[in-house]
Write a structure and sequence with these properties.
Layout: E1 21-25, E2 33-38, H1 41-46, E3 54-55, H2 58-64, E4 69-70, E5 92-94, E6 98-100, E7 107-109, E8 138-139, E9 142-145, E10 151-153, H3 156-160, E11 169-173, E12 183-187, E13 193-195, E14 232-235
Antiparallel strand pairs: 1-2, 2-5, 3-4, 6-7, 6-8, 9-10, 9-14, 11-12, 12-13
Length: 239
């Protein structure tokens, strides 16, 4: 666990509320990108720094028919020069877990890449990095969501459609075609290629046989439920 950024406490109940995808830029690694999903209320309790997260306001409770309210956690205070405990404050889980090297285009899950140091959430492409110039893998652009609020990883292998198990995937922008039509997903093992054209159409994933998995990655416990809604590809960070 590591501290990856800061957001205002008020943002925890608005822009960066539970289940929101939050983009961060590293302050000490040339602006390397990180993306996480804000965890649920049980994580707010885990992230407290000795303070009470449950608060009471009788008049507001009566008006809204609620028994209590939760206060977003903040990191524990430290003396000057000390490193705050990264387990306190608001928790987020890496999402999406699929990362892409901006140089060579390789797509792989986060565990494939090398951290620059133990405990660092950033991931290096050792193939493209050089002494004095690190190349960091970045979160992929696409995720999948449904109108019931479930969200999950984009099915890259299914979209590619090759028979390799697993495929060695790369995503490159064509020099002759613009937009999604020029964004080419390729298996480096067998040479199968497919463009990302049409990925945002309503039934694009259903036509692949892909169904909503009912995933709720912001929850630690019951993170899956039955769902018959249509899954659709979205750009990460889209509203």
């Amino acid at each position: 666990m590591a501290t990856v950024g800061k957001i205002r406490r008020s943002g925890c109940i608005h822009t960066f509320g539970i289940g929101s995808i939050i983009d961060f830029r590293s302050q000490d690694s040339f602006g390397a990108a990180l993306s996480g999903i804000a965890m649920g209320l049980e994580a707010w309790e885990e992230g407290r720094a000795g303070g009470k997260q449950i608060i009471h306001e009788p008049r507001l409770e009566k008006l809204l028919a609620k028994s209590s309210f939760y206060l977003p956690p903040v990191p524990e205070e430290t003396k000057h020069g000390q490193t705050p405990n990264p387990s306190t404050g608001l928790w987020a889980k890496r999402f999406p877990n699929m990362l892409q090297c901006p140089s060579c285009g390789i797509l792989q899950v986060s565990d494939y890449w090398s951290p620059p140091k133990i405990g660092d959430p950033l991931r290096l492409c050792t193939q493209c990095s050089r002494p004095g110039k690190n190349v960091f893998a970045a979160p992929v652009r696409f995720v999948v969501a449904c109108e019931a609020g479930h969200i999950e990883e984009f099915p890259w292998a299914a979209w590619l459609g090759c028979k390799c198990s697993p495929p060695a995937m790369r995503l490159d922008q064509s020099k002759t075609r613009a937009g999604l039509a020029g964004l080419i997903l390729e298996c480096m093992n067998c040479g199968t290629k497919n463009s990302m054209e049409g990925v945002f159409s309503e039934h694009a994933l259903l036509n692949l046989g892909f169904r909503c998995s009912g995933l709720r990655p912001w929850l630690n416990g019951a993170s899956r439920e039955d769902c018959d809604k249509t899954p659709r590809a979205l750009q990460r960070g889209a509203s």
